Amino acid sequence: MAQILVVDDSATVRNEVSTFLSDNGFSVATAVDGKDGLDKTRADGALKLIISDVNMPNMDGLTMAEKIRGELGNQTVNIIMLTTESDPRMKERGKAAGVKGWIVKPFKGDAIVGAVKKLVG
Amino acid sequence: MTDINHVKSKLLILDHDQAAATEVAKFCEANNIIALKPSAQTSLEIINNNTDLGGIIVSDAYSIENYSGDSLIQELHYKRPELPLFIRGRSPSDKATAFLSGSFTLDNMDELKQAIDKHLFTTYYPIPLIRGMQEISLEAIKANIKQCKIEVDPPYLVKDQIIYGELLSLIPLESNWYRGYMMLQTTEQEVVDVIQKGLTHINKQDTDFRFVNAILNEITNLIWGGIKNKFSSVSNDDSGINTRTQVPISINHHHRYISFGTTDPQLCFHYRIRGINDSVPYIDIYQKFIFNLSWYPDDFQNCDTETDKLVESGELEFF
C-alpha cells in the first residue's frame, strides 16, 4: 500500500519524483499514464496523494482526476498536477475536478516537500 | 561565451585559390557567416560530411574527383538541392545557371551579400525570442542531466535538411503567432554514459535505448512547455483549431533526410554538455526550430511582455 502515486509517461520524471519522495520517507507507487493511474487508484484505497502529469497518452491527467472524483467517487485522495502546462483554463478545469495544487515543471523538490507532507499527513 | 545578438549561418567554401578563399572568409566573418573550408579533401563526400549548412560557395575553377564546371554544379545541386549555391566567377553555362542562387567576383562582393540575403537570411527571428528559447532549453537540459556544464554555439540558420546523430525527437509548437516544430537530435552512447555515471534521474543500470529516448523526450517536453508558457499569448484564440492546416513531414532514412515542406531556413542551436569534472564524454544536442505552418514574429513583442512574469516553475500553487 503506497501513500503517494506518481503518474507520468516520462520514466525520467517518475524516477526523479518517486526517488525524491522515497528519500523523504514516503511510500510511492508509479503509473505510466492516466489510465494506469486510474486503475491503480481503484486498486489502492489507501492512497493519500496523487502527483500527476497533464499531457500523457491514452488518458491525460485532468481526465484522470475527473474520473477519480466522478466514476470512482473518491473524494478523499488529494491530487497535485506536475506539468509543463500553465494555461489558466487548464488550472480552472483542474480546480473543478478537485485538484489541490499545480506545479509547473521543472520540478524543484525541496520547494514542495513541506506541502506534500501537509497533504499526506 | 554565446553571442546571440546575431544569428549566423555556415557556408562551405570550395575554392583552390587560397588568396580568394581568404578574401571570402573575411567577407563571411563580417557578415555573420561561419566559413567552412574543407582541408585537402579529394572526394565529394565533403558535401555529406558537412551538415547544418546554409549554403555553398564554389569557385568556377574548382574541380574535385572528375567534376568541374557544369558537371560539378549539377552534382552539387543533385547531392544537396536544398542548399543555395553561389559561384565565384562566372557560371559555366546557362544550364548550370538554373542551379545557382548567385554569382560574384572578388571585386564586387556586394553581389554575394545580396544573393545571401535573398536566399539565406530570409526569416526574422527576434533576439529576445532567441534568448528565451536558449534559456528555457538550458534549464530543461540541466533539469535532466545533473552536474553538467553546457557550451552553446551562437544560433545559426540552416538550409540543409540532413538528420544528425541517432536519436531524434519532434514536437509541434503552436500559438496564435507561430506554428511549426522543434526537433532535438543527439547520439546514443554519450547519453548511456551519463546514465551509467548517475548523472540523470534514470537508474544507473537502465541503459536500454528506451531510457535514453526517455531523457531526450523529457528535455523536449520541458522545452515545449517552457516555450508555450513564455511565448504563447494569454488570450490565445483556439476557435480555429479544428480548421488549421497541416502539411506532411517526410523522412528518408536512407539519405538521413527530413522535410517539413518548406525551404525557409531553420533556426538551429548546438549545445555541448560536459560533466563538471570531464568524467564522461560530452553530449552534443542539435536543436532546430521549423516554423513551417505560420510565422508572425511581429506579434512576438506583445505576448512576450504579457506573459514574461506569469509563469514561475517549480513552486506549488495551492488551489
UniProtKB/TrEMBL annotation, chain A:
Gene3D superfamilies named in the record = 3.40.50.2300
**At what positions is 4-aspartylphosphate found?**
D53
Q: What SUPFAM superfamilies has UniProt attached to this entry?
A: CheY-like (SSF52172)
**Response regulatory domain location:** 3-120
* Entry keywords, A to Z: Phosphoprotein
GO biological process, alphabetically ordered? phosphorelay signal transduction system
Its domain of life?
Bacteria
The answer, when asked if tRNA-binding is one of the entry's keywords, is no
Any Pfam family from its record, for instance, is: Response_reg
Q: What is this protein called?
A: Response regulator receiver protein
Automatic annotation (TrEMBL), chain B:
Q: What is any one GO biological process for this UniProt entry?
A: chemotaxis
What keywords appear on the UniProt entry? Chemotaxis
The record's InterPro entries line, in alphabetical order, gives: CheC-like_sf (IPR028976)
Q: Which domain of life is it from?
A: Bacteria
Any idea what this protein is called?
Answer: Chemotaxis phosphatase CheX-like protein
